[in-house]
Amino acid sequence: MNICDYGLTQSTEGLPGIPARVTAVHKERYEIVCDRGITHARLKTSEYYAGNEAFPTTGDFVMIQYIPNGDSVILHTLPRKTLFSRREPGSVPRDQAVAATFDSVFIMQSLNQDFNPKRLERYLTLAYQSGATPVILLTKADLVADTWDYEMQVERVAMGAATHVVSARTGYGLARLNAYLQPGKTVVFLGSSGVGKSSLVNALAGEEIMGVGGIREDDSKGRHTTTHRQLIRLQSGVMIIDTPGMRELGMWDVSEGMGEAFSDVEQYLGTCRFSDCRHEKEPGCAIRAAIERGELDMGRWQSYQKLKAEAVDKEEMLRRKNAWSKGVAKQIKQLKKK
């Protein structure tokens, strides 16, 4: 087994240990692949919990101390060329790395009740922010007689992202994905439960390598079949990172992603008569004028405002996290005194 077959292109010369790639994360234990084969590993505590290293996620390349008859030790996380992350819910927001070091993001929505352009805007924003190429897949084309209306809805929010209509069941449209599915390339699959991620993996692999769940008849929502993020290497040499269905995605530091996903909105920002324009009733507002002229869709402006307000800047997150930590430490100190 050669780790380069799993997409490693950067040099590891001079670094301690041997290179490996994380294929799955199970709490504090990592499934990895290296030149010695498939094994498991744990973090070197002194490096990671001291804040010296980025905690690995599925897709990351790492340096390990290989241990033949036990868990190897992860020493270092190699630089990432792309990263998909989301904001974890909770009183203290945290950055949750979902997948790393990939080339394309397949954003999947099925042509049934799961179809949701507003959710697609979220996925697109985060995909652009990751630094990879977003590709929109409208799955389960065999369920509808005409896909034109769906494609028109997607076109209004896609902002140049390629869109493909496919069916894992019949094979329709799968040949058009070959441009992204090249040996050594890694693709992340994103979409809600039941959108057909596992079915598409099986169709691309040409064999049943992932379990497929059913669809609830009352709302067309899927049953979870993928329970953790997992990197799979197909016989073709393509790597796929399958993710659990994520219906809700907390927005994060998405300044670059917003600019790409909402370029139709941001082209008007900064062109109002007044620099502090709130885009409400101020004279000379470029946003309101564009909406009135029909150049900008009101729904797109509302979506932009909602996602922008929801996004949490990382500096603000760190400030809140540090304040929370100091508060906890102060309470513990007071309890000890008592």
Task: Describe the main β-sheet briefly.
Answer: 6 strands, mixed
Order of helices and strands: EEEHEEEEEHEHEEHEEHHHHH
The strand count comes to 13
- Uncertain residue segments: 214-227
Explain this structure to me?
By secondary structure, this protein is an alpha/beta fold. 28% of the residues lie in helices and 23% in strands. The chain is built from nine helices and 13 strands. It has helices spanning 45-48, 117-130, 148-158, 197-205, 255-261, 263-266, 286-292, 298-310, 314-337, and strands at 18-26, 29-34, 37-43, 61-65, 72-77, 83-88, 94-100, 104-110, 133-139, 162-165, 186-190, 230-233, 239-242. The strands form three sheets. It has a six-stranded mixed β-sheet, with helices on both faces. The protein has a five-stranded mixed barrel with strand order 1-2-3-5-4. Strand 12 (230-233) and strand 13 form a beta hairpin. It is globular. Residues 214-227 have low confidence and may be disordered.
